[in-house]
Prior knowledge:
The complex is a heterotrimer of chains A (174), B (671) and C (183). By secondary structure, chain A is mainly α. Among the domains of chain A are: 63-126, Helicase, Ruva Protein, domain 3 (Orthogonal Bundle), CATH 1.10.8.640; 132-162. Chain A is 57% helix and 4% strand. The radius of gyration of chain A is 29 Å and the shape is elongated. With 183 residues, chain C is of the alpha/beta class. In chain C, the strands form two sheets. Chain C has a five-stranded mixed sheet with strand order 5-4-3-6-7. Chain C has a two-stranded antiparallel ribbon with strand order 1-2. The radius of gyration of chain C is 20 Å and the shape is elongated. Classes of the chains: A mainly alpha (174), B alpha+beta (671), C alpha/beta (183). At the A-B interface, α1, α2, β1, α3 and α6 of A face α8, α9, α12, α13 and α16 of B.
Amino acid sequence: MRRSGRAEAARGNGAPRPDAGRLAEFGSALVAFLTALLLSLAVTLAVTGPAFAIEAERAFEDPALQKRYEDLNDELRCLVCQNQTIADSNAPLAQDLRREVREMMRAGRTDDDIRQFMTERYGDFVLYKPPMTARTYLLWSAPVILLLIALGSVAVIVLKRSRKPIEPDPEEAT
Amino acid sequence: MIPELGHFALILAFLLAIAQSFFGLAGAHVGRESWIKATNPAVTGGFVFVSVSLACLAWAFAVDNFSVEYVANNSNSALPMLFKISAVWGAHEGSLLLWIWIQAVWTLGVAALTGGLDPTFRARVLGVLGIVSVGFMSFTLATSNPFERLLPSPADGADLNPLLQDWALSIHPPMLYMGYVGTSVAFAFAVAALIGGRFDAEWAKWTRPWTLAAWLSLTIGIALGSWWAYYELGWGGWWFWDPVENASFMPWLVSTALIHSLAVTEKRGLFKSWTLLLAIFAFSLSILGTFLVRSGVLVSVHAFASDPARGMFILGMLLFFIAGSLLLYAWRAPLLKSEHGFEVFSREAFLLVNNGLLVAAAGLILVGTLWPLFMDAFELGKISVGPPYFNAVFLVPTIPLILLLGIGMHSSWKRTRFQNVKVPLLVLAALSLVAAILVPLVVYSGLKALTVVGFFAAFFIMASALVEPVSRLRHKQTLSRSVLGMSLAHFGLGMFVMGVTGLESYKIERDISLGPGETHVIDDYEFKFVGTRPVTGPNYEAIEGIVEIREDGELLTTLRPQKRLYQVRGDMMTEAGIRIGPDRDLFVALGEDLGLGRWSMRIQYKPLVRYIWLGALVMAIGGGLAALDRRYRIIADDAAKKADQALSGGGPTGRPVPGAASTSTAAQRGA
Amino acid sequence: MWRYLGPLIGVLALGAIFAVTLARIGTGELDVREIPSPLIGKPAPQFELPSVQDENERISTAALAGRPWVLNVWGTWCPGCRQEHDTLLRISSDSVVPIIGLNWKDERSLAMQWLTQLGNPYTKVAFDPEGDVAIDWGVYGSPETFLVSAEGIVIAKHIGPMTEQIWREKFLPLLAEKSGGGA
């Protein structure tokens, strides 16, 4: 508001204005602000959240197995929770399912075996990554379909427009 | 008495909103000046009464008036005052009242800052905004009255959900609603343009700052929510693709597309009908989000009490707004043909690709979010569509988007002659690629293709965003806020991409158990569990763990994660201890007491995680700068003058028609 | 023309789907939280577990083969189980079909106390403190009730407290149909 007088005065003045100094000043102030922000963030926070799943021990000594275990837990849905993986939930069922995953892995079963074990009992709902079936082909092909539609339409429009005459625009004309 | 006053004020505001819609739309239709003028007091009065209503509810919370059911359900006398106030919007009814108040703020803002706009057009804009207010107010009054009394009233309240007892929650919903509701302004401009048949570059100039303002609020709101989830939900994730998150992300993506498309419409008078469609959809997706979260059709971590009756109401409102505006669109849009051309390598083409990819990304989220609902509707069984799906498919449109951005920023309208920027861009791209390979190898361990792509895009965007401001400053040229804002927003996006890439590639999470004095080493950090001590808070009892972190043998910090028992609800909450820093966060959360002083705990190393939110903040600052660009003020001043002339020359009947822009262009060129 | 009406048609179709879904939730026909069991139509998972009342007694599904039976999953910690208990007692008094209890993630003493105080509707009660058998049956929350045919196939599952209405309208007709078809 308070700058409107100035804006009016500057209007129509297309030549470079002695504004660069002020902007540089502004730029350096911004950099200083961001640096200060970054530094101020280097403090210790203490914050709250609900009880969630923390396992007492690593399930596997072998880091590769542990990674497999965590990845599997991350794609299995806790069925009693609102919308959580069994890795995140502390619900008794989630604990049981994690134990089941652990035991099956120790018995040398593959990830697919474990996924199949879960879907045989709980249905596809238990998998956060929907399996490829007739009912999900469309879902899984959505990224490709949408990308093709988007890029296809863009290509058609651009080609059409590139054949039209290019007019000088008002901004340039003034 | 005060709650009844609040209820009464809301009813008055509702009546004023009806008046605002009627006088605005009917006044513009019949061209009656007195009606058009009557919209102003209706807007101001509406704002005053909604404010009174909100203040009454806040008062009921502040004085622990548990005879109000909503207060009794969401507050407690032991709750600290800050949380008593933020509890006003802590559940369904109050959050709707906040929504309505924010709508009133935006409407007042539009009324105050568009004085120079053609009075007929302005009346229509205010009329449409009035209808939106009427929709939400009738929803609140009919199904979700926060002032409902509870008799007999309880001695004390049931307390606010401890999850929500946090300062970030006090600003997250207001910011998010600022964004959601803000999309209604662009929507109102679009509908007003469709009704009046007025749609030109001027229109885009008027709409753009409002869209930017809504977009930046949405950006901050989403970032706050993500940050809050990161520390509050305890597991250290920053995005879960929960329906409630997707509901906020879809309007963000479409608003982002709208900002870019408005640029083309403003500068070149192109893509008019597409821009209108985006304005309609940005708003529609905001309401769709409300519908999905509050109707109970989807299962989400967000626990709004779901109610099919409320769902029906929102659905009716949603369909009224979208179907109505799309019908108008189908009627008017065929008129909006433009004959301007541009070359294949032009800014128009790049922005079109940007729009295509952003809308495809929003469409993907929509499909993924709604797919379980479709399966239910057609009785095809139940499936879950979760993070593994979204994380995989979302990259399909976004990787090309971020890779093209660095070049697209330097394209020019109509045709791009890359000669001027070719060398610096090639050099920057090469440097970015080298850095994207070196950083993973030297700083972190291991090199993955996706990590290199992510870092390359991030570095290239950041570097490329600086080219224009730096060169303008060097050549002592003007640097408009618009250009500076754009550069900053893109720089922020680069920061965000860098944060996501670093975090997702190199984060470490460990669940371990430690006895007093035992240590665990992650990366360069040694975590030493000292022991625990009891702590008493205002409305909770807690056990506090003491964990010392050493880097190269030197004490870096002591974290004090807690497990809290909130007495009123009996909820157990985990309070993580976080050491935040520019290069990484260190995160400790207490698990279970395993006996003999031994505790299970989760320790996390989160590289570059801060840049996710800092990047969003920089994006928002950029958006703010662009919204404050001089040309939007100039157009306001110009319009004010024109309006004065028009008024003195015979009132608002001389309505501009489609094509007015090109004639004025021709006139300008002639002059 | 289609180009401009397309968005409207898409939105209306989506709106119709939402409206139907909401209406079905409203009438209770659809429960978004209910997860249908993939076991329906499949052989019932086998188990052999100790009895709640007697550690040495083994309860096995093999012994139940040849006639229909009901499996009811419960625990003393579950409010819905208390709610359905009287209904179960009444159903068991009809002696149409044996009801096998699966005591899930519970303590033996608490379960015994419950059965003595509230009455025992079960022919036998199997004890599953670890929840392994419950996982095999795809149990995610109690109470859950399964109906197994004489051929050992799971033919129905009810999630939530059993009611007279559900018993009469869902379980009994299936029982009659199966035994009628078998004769």
